[in-house]
Specification:
The structure is a single chain. The protein has five helices and 27 strands. It is mainly β and 398 residues long. Strands 15, 16, 17, 18, 19, 21, 22, 23 and 26 form a nine-stranded antiparallel beta sheet that branches. A five-stranded antiparallel beta sheet has the order 4-3-7-1-27. Strands 8-9-10-11-12 form a five-stranded antiparallel beta sheet. A hairpin with a 4-residue loop joins strand 9 and strand 10. The two termini are 22 Å apart.
Length: 398
Amino acid sequence: MGLKFFFTLGVCGALLQLGCTDATENRYRIEIVNPLNEVRSLETVEIDLAAIPFKNAIRASAKSYEIFDLATQNKVTSQAVDLDGDGSLDQLLFQPEVDAGESKLFEIIASEEKTIEEADPLCYSRFVPERTDDYAWENNRVAFRTYGPTAQKLKEDGVPGGTLSSGIDAWLKKVDYPIINKWYKKELETDGSYHEDTGEGLDNFHVGVSRGVGGITVKRDSSYHVSKNFTSYETLTKGPIRTSFVLKYEDWKAGEDIIKEEKHISLDNGSNLSRFEIKVRGTDKVSVGLTMHENDGQVSVAQDKGYVSYWQPHEDSELGTAIVAEPKRIVEVEEYQNGRPDENNVYAGLSVQEGSVVYYAGFTWKESKQFANAKEWENYLEDFSKKIQFPLQVKYLK
């Protein structure tokens, strides 16, 4: 009772700041239900703040939202998100720990105190103008980047330092803290290089014109067609739970068809896989690729379980890459080799529905000690696929 009373006083204090007299006006309970018979953690739950019936005055005054585990009375790490940039918070993200088949109660509290943003959050992304115009993103397990219009123009003009590729690069980190800013500074402002491992990992994953880790292509007849570099970007979120952003591309041709493409990418805490939502017009199917590099790796296809994996030797170590999607969206898998550099990819053909396709793509590096071998990696992919097919459920209570 003492803990309960103390917690209620804390809530009332927040309410007084908002000019409220009834604590229930400023807090709302939700129930999280685990439909699987296994423990769930490090899975992001999205709370739709519009679905919570806060009064307009409270909603207008709220600068942030907090969430508490009602069983322990402990505050849970969360991240409030403004999805459309209108200044109002739309979602509350958090990662509850829920036992097998369990339901847990949480309480959301509106606050007029603005959350102080971390200078270097765990889930982070940014445009990198100092390195031509990369866009890079990371969490506590993996890091990625891709390339912008200046890099494309340099390549087309024959100027050193250019890159013409819409493939997705993998940065092989082996630490659980942010490295993007450190590595770019190391590369551009010191005698060191992110191509050398000094304890945190390195960039030695070659992309070229390949699809890297999850770049897309459109197949027409027997040929695969790709876009050029992204033309513009918009950073949406960064924080302890998720970073997200949008990349836009010039229209491009696949055979006689004009392809319109926009990538919505996010990466959550604890995940080896980025989520890609491709807004696309001009095709009813896209092929998502994993570069096969020297063709000396092992392709594993589990179409009924929703994943395609490639495990390969990588210099003095080993590397696993993968694509995960709803099994019903995977219409074909093809290993494509034409003998030209960087054009050997394994492709998962995914159906486009209502102008979009969603998939996850990512990697693991053996030196990170996350997964020791291909079997452990594939077990992770199978588990990941099952959980996105049977997500944690949110019930909005009175």
